TrEMBL record:
Residues 53-115, 188-251 form the SLH domain. This is S-layer homology domain-containing protein. It comes from the Bacteria. Keywords: Signal. InterPro entries: Cell_Envelope_Struct_Comp (IPR051465), SLH_dom (IPR001119). Residues 1-33 form the signal peptide. It holds the Pfam family SLH. The keyword Chaperone does not apply.
Amino acid sequence: MTFKYNNPSHSKKVVSAVLAGMMALSAGGAAMAAESTEAEQSQTAAVSNTTAPAGLFSDIKVGYWAEKHVYKLANQGILLGNNGLFRPGDAVTQQEAVTMAIRFMNQEGQLNDSTATALPTNMEVGNYFKPYVALALQLGLIDKTEEATVDVSKTTWGQKPASREWITKLLIRSLNKEAEAKAQNSQSTGFADDASISTDGKGYVNLAVSLELAKGVEGNKFNPTGSVTRAQLATFFSRGEALTDTAYLNTYTGYVTGLKDGQISLLVDGKVTNFTVNSSTPYFTKDSETRATEPNVQLYTKVQVVGSAGNAAYVEVIDATPQVESVEGTFARSLSGNKIGIFVGENYETYGYDEATAFIDQNGNAIKLTDITADSIIEVQRETFSADKKTVAIRVKSGIVNKSDSGVIAEVSTTGKTIKFTNAAGTTEQFTYGDNLIIRYQDRILSLAELKAGSTVKYTVKDSVLQSIELSQGVEQSVRGTLVEIGGNQSTLTFKREGGSLEAKLLAENPEVVINGIQDASLSDLITDATNGDQVELTLNGEDRVTRIQVIGRQMEPMNGASVVSYNSKTKVLTVLDSNKKPFVFTLDDKTKLDYNTTKPTLAGLESLLNEGRKLDLTYVGTRALSVKVIYKYEGTLSGMDTNKKTISVLSGNQTITVPYSTVPAVEIYNKSGASLSDLKIGDKVTVTLGSNQDYVQKVSLNTVAQLEVVSVETNGRVRVKSDSLTSQFYVDQAVLTGESGQSITASQLTAGNLINVTFEGTTPKAVQVVKRTLAEVTSVDATSVTLKLFNGQSETVPVSGAVKVIKSGSTLTTLNSLTVGDRVEMTKDTDNSTRFRVMTIMSKQFWSYDAVGNQILVKRESTSDTNYRFALGTGVFVHQGDNTLSVQSLKDNDNIVLYLLNNVIMEIQKQ
């Protein structure tokens, strides 16, 4: 390489692009220095001739902010380590900075050991660094006269930490900008510590600032004596590579011409080079500092590979746009000499192809040239990065398809008469079908209705129309019949098909039972009999096991408000009068569902209550009682309270029930002690509990739904919760618990931080549902949707219909336009099913310390009277700087941070 001192435009590009991103040169040494861990602050860092390991240095972990740059330069040989360590957080020494600069400029070939002996006596450096420093003096990167005045009484010249001003000079000179810098020496830098910058350094600082290379630190200071870390300097050199024409060792930049398992092919200067890749190969992109979670390299994109001996040690996508051009036309025929003829409009054109050209059908599947039929519309794709403009792909856009393949059913559309498949290659393709389509499983012909998404199949296409589909496994189907018997171990079921004979089927584990009028029905609720058994529809899975049993046609009748006439405990015969005083006789058995004022009802416990006059609700079929409920409460809407007549009326279903009271009944309301009847109003949802003789009101419970945050869960089923700043507790062992998707869960599956909707009967929780809670940043919003950037970095567009609540600055607003881009929000469903956004409060603070015991942070007080300096951390608090996720323990004293809070609890910390 020829070091280009005489190309000002080139130098300006290098300066402005590289240092604008890297040399922010901010507080305490540099902006990025605060990213280093305490372990990285060792003062023993030294560059030696120990080569870097094949992977990262042991002190550069995956996800480290400078991992990309250190990893690349290490594999290029620009960075060398010391016993496998890089020590990225150490202040870079002057001899290290000079050495890295020489390697970066690829000037190591100019090193001369003999000239090293002529170093000035005050410029004492390690033996390894002497030739580098001597060459830097020759190139004018450092000035002998300036360095002669350096104080070396406390440390040698080489071991002296490179200051911000010194690094600025080194960089400006390396870019041949010294003349421009000196022309500005007489101008003030404008920084508050301008007097601390040397007279002959002001011009370098002015130029660096004007070119947006350097920025000030807090208090509008430049801090000229502040240090620069080794990781920062590595980042500068790495970014600078993209703007130079230097040929670096083991570095190849070109266009991807081939991608195979374990291999990537790159066209570099007209020659294809193959590189081996594996699961540990790191992938990066030009515009991101963090490692890509998975390879995302596409054909014909511009890529840089660092590697040796055909092995890729580093892959970076420079330009993710495929460099191809397309020509569309009508296929005419194939020609000799590996060419095809097509009509483009009215013009006949020919295009060549070779063994690397891909032939693809309209569904993205590989085909042969002979599979393309005349008059098919095709697209010829040619690369644009070489003079040959080779044909890389010939794609059929529409044409006749004849093929057989295997795959999985993705979608069946009876309206469009199409079936979509995901074939064996993982590509989605869609074909139409006609009335002659044959669907088969083994020796059985199936109907189109039995073809389900997810089924594994083989299929045949002729003239672009589906001809046959063969299932490789059974499909779900439904049959009807009369239920005859459930096996003793509840593993088999016997039924009589409609118009057929008896059949036995195995039951799947926990089959679903659906009976109209019975909630959470089970196998024990089914009526089995050879002649009078339930009429059922059975759902059979692909293994021919029963997964669902739905009772159809059962003539189950309800009877509400019946009065007991008598009950015989020996014969289990119950005689009652309905509300019209008409007598009925029922038989109870071990399958009868029981309900009375207990959590574990038994028939023996019920029998003691079946005295004359007791009021019951029943369901029955014929003379068999399916359920018996002793009326001990009424649930409904409060429709009347007459304190003179001492009655309470409740609309339950379509019936108004009025119950008297002799003494004022107790009133229970969640989170309200000492409640009374005056706290109730007409229209409230209530539960009225009766006395032991069912003749008076004992208690009125207000039915409410509250949204609460779980603080802790105890093993005995007690849950501590909070709403805003109020904390309470209750037991959920008798409540119905469901997760975000409505699935049944146990109390042990609740965790701190869960948001839950709790349905209370008075103070007793009857149902608990976990509410999906999304914490994110608003990136766009319109009248019907909100796009959010989640804490994991993913983006999600949420359509919003129905009622909306935006809680912002203490006000509740009802339109999405109340949100603004940049708002941090908590998105949930409120208790009334409206979509709710709670906008977080924002505070800018300076970090002080972290209290791990109290799980809180302390910030610097703004004045002696400031008492708002201690903040609790929310569960899973998101701490980050830009797109880099941090731990709260990594924050340092005086770090500038932005806090995002809900109810004074921190949900997000953004480090500046």
